[in-house]
Amino acid sequence: MPDVAELDNAPATPTIDGSAAAAILLMLLDESEAATILKQLAPEEVRQLAKAMFDTANASEQQIGQALDRFVTRSRDVSALAIGADTRIRTVMTEAVGNVRADNILAAVAPQRSAASLEILRWMDVDAISGLLASEHPQVGALILSVLVPDIAARAIETLDEVLQADLVLRAAMLTSVPAAAIEDLESVLASANVDGQRVAKQAIGGPSDVAKIMKKMPKQLSERTIRALKKHDRILAQTIEEEMFIFENLRDLDKKSLGSVLRSVDAAQLAIALKGTDEDMVDLCLATMSKRASETIRDEMAEMTMVKRADVDEAQKGIMLIVRQMAAAGEIMIAGGGDDYV
Predict the structure, then answer these.
(1) Which end of the chain is more exposed for a tag (fewer CB within 10 A), N or C?
(2) What is the 8-class DSSP label of residue 11?
(3) Rounded CA gap, 138 and 160, in Å?
(4) Does residue 78 sit in helix, strand or coil?
(5) Per-residue pLDDT tens digits for 237-248
(6) CATH number of 247-329
(7) Global model pTM greater than 0.70
């Protein structure tokens, strides 16, 4: 019989994670029952579970027990509010803002209950989406680009002709409202059914902010080339997109040395106004890169300020971000992007 010391030194059975537990539970079910569950999930969740099912194919009895215990524990926490919640939420959202806008909102906050009009896109691979963008009317392509997840959109547009890339990005950036006919074209392309027959004349979609998210996911060379092409068509719009690609809050992404280099190039009064519109963590982060005396000066200036106009804060922050882009263009600092660096 092993002594107490041996028992204490025995390796503990590792606790399985959520994906492994879900995979084990699915494999314990009848095939048709498991398939019914998988039909309710988003593509990425299905791919993750498929991998986990292979990884747990030789699960031990103890691991199976852990998965069942985890399921029972979580089931106790299920609220009665959750029963049929997705249907009720979709109904309320659609009634409030219309079908397409509700689809976009729910796709962002609840991707596992993706909107019918976007479902096909989520299951398509990047090459297939690129084919759609290349073959459909550019306005439909711009709509597709706007509703894609930014990193997928960036990959889908990467292989297209340079002229088409610029045209699609320009059209997507200029989207503020979309005619019902254009939405119907998109739904026809995606072979999607109309959920409730309701349609409004215009819907908000796309715009510079959405395009900026896509551009940040593009490789550095492609994003630079696209911005240059956009500037030939609309310099102000291109500048707006550049501003959206790296906003004041993204200063958090700079390393301490780069952040310090930027802030040393900023006027103290301008920095005080810019920081007045941020949270205390951001203030501490920025001032930590400065000397004690300089930091105290900024804090004193901020303390002396009473009410500061939002417009003044925005202007100060934009001025600082202009310095960031200039320093990045000169190679003095690096701005982290999605897959590659954006300068």
Answers:
(1) N
(2) P
(3) 12
(4) coil
(5) 888 887 777 778
(6) 1.10.220.30
(7) no
